[in-house]
Amino acid sequence: MSVESNDGVTTIKQSEVIIPDLTIKDLLSAIPAHCFKRSAIRSSLYVAWDCIVIGSIYKATTFLEAFITPEVINLPHPILYPVARFSVWSSYGFLVGLFGMGLWVIAHECGHQAFSESKFINNTVGWVLHSALGVPYHSWRISHAKHHASTGHMTQDQAFVPKTRSQLGLPAFDPTQESILGLSVSAKVKKELRDALGDSPIGAALAAAGYLLWGFPAYLICNASGQKRYPKGTNHFNPNAVIFAPHQYDSVIVSDIGILLWLAGLAGSIHKFGFWDVFRVYIVPYLWVNHWLVLITFLQHTDPILPHYRAAEFTFPRGALSTLDRSLLGDCGKIMAWIGAHATHGISETHVLHHVSSKIPHYNAWEASDALRRRLKQAEIVLQGAPGGWREVYRVYRACRFVEDEGNITFYKNALGLAASRAKIMDDAASDSGVEIDTI
């Protein structure tokens, strides 16, 4: 809600977001002990299941395609035959992309050593699965571990790091015209920011679509949306990149070998089967996997209600709790919500738990998440976002444009310089007594 005053200043009512002071021991103790157990056999069964489902979708698609001919079915117009085939293969790409994302999630669990008790098994399975999906396993595993260690940290986090006012080249902050907290902004500043950032609905939709399609390859190749302090040219394929320590050199090379084998497999398949067959059978689902990966992770870590921290206020529990759980495809109804959660192994629905303890396998994450939510509810913390889908990506993309260059706890501002949220810190003593400490 916004109120326009006579002098042209817009003031909004902000939501107060509790900044927790819970310890990691407090969070972990809420989770049943058996949830931490990992089983290579059980994890392997999920890999097998995903592959069986993907194979079944392929068989069903080719079976249906065989019937889309004038000899078998009589359609009113000849153009309807290619339209029908396109529809069948489009459905194939969508569904295989979802279950392919499930395989991606399991490979990601290997990187967290959550697949089994054996590091060798974890890294072998993870390297095979991630290489098959065009991901440099060890390279991404290393940077992703840094992301988990510093989630929401403005200078240490590795992905979805907000750009600041100065990094975007926006007009300097003017305390006489706007609130540093984004509570109020003058008409003059709103116009300056909107002109600099752009706030076109069509432009936002196109930018968000491009982000979903190419965001992950761009992150791997040129650190797009990654840590802003890294030098230009930082990428996940150079073993000497600032992301990696010297002792990780060989691991990056092994990751690069996996990508070279993947590219060789693609080239060989195109040579043998033709580009069109490889495109519809593999490349389209591959693009869908990248789409789901960016959509899910973007919405887990980006929202007007999520704080970002500078060093003075950052702790590991605060970072872990600066994420959201969302029902993937939940805005499409209960059936689609179930399909989305089942196909992607609940990675969107149990993400807060995953940041609290990344070694918990996905099949135990549901029970562990329920236990963690009960503990967080006692601290008046609810980390459940709106369902994950295109509509939510569009909303968040427009609402989260930049953060200020100052402030140890900062929230996103939109293209008008307004922030929907502000911080409220509750320390341990305050939690026990029911007293809240407002830092604003």
From TrEMBL:
<dbReference type="GO" id="GO:0016491">
    <property type="term" value="F:oxidoreductase activity"/>
</dbReference>
<keyword id="KW-0812">Transmembrane</keyword>
<dbReference type="InterPro" id="IPR005804">
    <property type="entry name" value="FA_desaturase_dom"/>
</dbReference>
<feature type="domain" description="Fatty acid desaturase">
    <location>
        <begin position="88"/>
        <end position="380"/>
    </location>
</feature>
<keyword id="KW-0472">Membrane</keyword>
<dbReference type="InterPro" id="IPR012171">
    <property type="entry name" value="Fatty_acid_desaturase"/>
</dbReference>
<dbReference type="Pfam" id="PF00487">
    <property type="entry name" value="FA_desaturase"/>
</dbReference>
<protein>
    <submittedName>
        <fullName>Fatty acid desaturase-domain-containing protein</fullName>
    </submittedName>
</protein>
<feature type="transmembrane region" description="Helical">
    <location>
        <begin position="88"/>
        <end position="108"/>
    </location>
</feature>
<feature type="transmembrane region" description="Helical">
    <location>
        <begin position="46"/>
        <end position="68"/>
    </location>
</feature>
<keyword id="KW-1133">Transmembrane helix</keyword>
<feature type="transmembrane region" description="Helical">
    <location>
        <begin position="202"/>
        <end position="222"/>
    </location>
</feature>
<dbReference type="GO" id="GO:0006629">
    <property type="term" value="P:lipid metabolic process"/>
</dbReference>
